[in-house]
Amino acid sequence: MEKRQIQGTELWVSPFGLGTADAGVAWREEDTEKIFGTYLDLGGNVIDTAHVYSDWVPPETARSERVIGDWLARTKKRNEIVLVTKGGHPSMLGENPDMHKSRMRREDMAGDLDSSLMKLRTDYIDLYFYHRDDVTIPVEETVEVMEDFVRQGKIRYYGCSNWTPERMKAAGAYCKEKGYRGFIADQMLFNYGTKHMKPMEDDTLCSMDDEMYAYHRENSGNLAMPYMGICSGFFHSYEKKGEDAVKDSPYYTEGNREAARRLKMLKEKYDADTTQILLGFFTVQDFPCLPLYGTGKPERLKEAARAFSIDFEKEDFHMVL
Q: I need a labelling partner for 39 at 20 to 30 A (CA). Which of 87, 173, 290, 298 fits?
């Protein structure tokens, strides 16, 4: 997989990032060496985690970061990867966590970042994200917090996750005024099924609507890094198990049932599997995309990587764009 440079930075990144929310949970720690090794051998170099992964599985907190840190300590491959993590997420501890209880104040972010550095066993993060937004905090303040982290050498660049276009524009205007690089990446819900899906239960998540699509078309320097890149497995389950298996999914709509029929046609046209078609969706956008894909099976990483060697046509995805 060929790497490309994020505009205005020194970072060269692979076409997709390895999501690690399930590190040490859905995939075993002893498999880490093979999973990460396969990803790097394929040309991948973006490893994405967050300080909150996977606090929802007690008793350990920041488990994903700790697993990655252990791997880095064993293999000494820190300089081979672009390390991405996120802070400021609402607490996931206890029953019924409140996603509206913000943790984005300076002290929250500083505490999360210092803890992330310790867990990851590194002196710096390549790309550090605000994991949510708090609109009661002026964007000038949030930007200055990140700029302080840059000056301290704790992070190289910063981004935002689940921010609205309005807030990103405001942050961009302030950074231009101050001469800062600003956000280099934005993580949002975006995939083959988002156009036709029902609203997510968590209303703090931001998805790629028309306004955000226009924003990224006009602001290619803020790289789109979509999460849930393979639609949380909806189309895989729909194909293999039928409608009864997915009726409770927010993706289960008439539009996405038609998208599933279209997906089947594209699999035949390109001699590709479902994952490859879903990742191929990101290659035909009007702006750069670096989707995140997580799996505990090395063979699936090999299959996923092939998506970026297929010359998909934009017209193939007309009904979901």
A: 87
Q: For residue 289, give the amino acid letter.
A: C
**Omega within 30 of 0 (cis) for the link into 232:** no
Number of domains within the chain: 1
Q: What ranges in the chain are assigned the alpha helix state H? A: 32-41, 63-75, 106-120, 139-151, 165-178, 210-218, 234-241, 254-270, 274-280, 298-306
- The answer to whether residue 29 scores a pLDDT higher than 90 is no
Tokens at residue 317, please?
Answer: 């995805």
Please report where in the chains the tokens 């060697």 appear, as a residue: 309
- CA separation for the pair 161, 55 (Å, rounded): 18
d(CA 24, CA 60): 10
Both structure tokens of 229: 């890149």
DSSP codes of every residue in 66-86: HHHHHHHHHH--GGGSEEEEE
CATH of the domain at 52: 3.20.20.100
Sign (positive/negative) of CA torsion 61, 163, 153, 9?
positive
My answer on whether omega of the bond before 59 falls inside 30° of 0, hence cis, is yes
Give per-residue pLDDT as tens, 146-200: 999 999 999 999 999 999 999 999 999 999 999 999 999 999 999 999 999 999 9
Helix (H, G, I), strand (E, B) or coil at 6: coil
Give residue 281's domain range. 4-320
Residue 94: which pLDDT band, with cuts at 50, 70 and 90? Answer: confident
Average pLDDT, the chain: 96
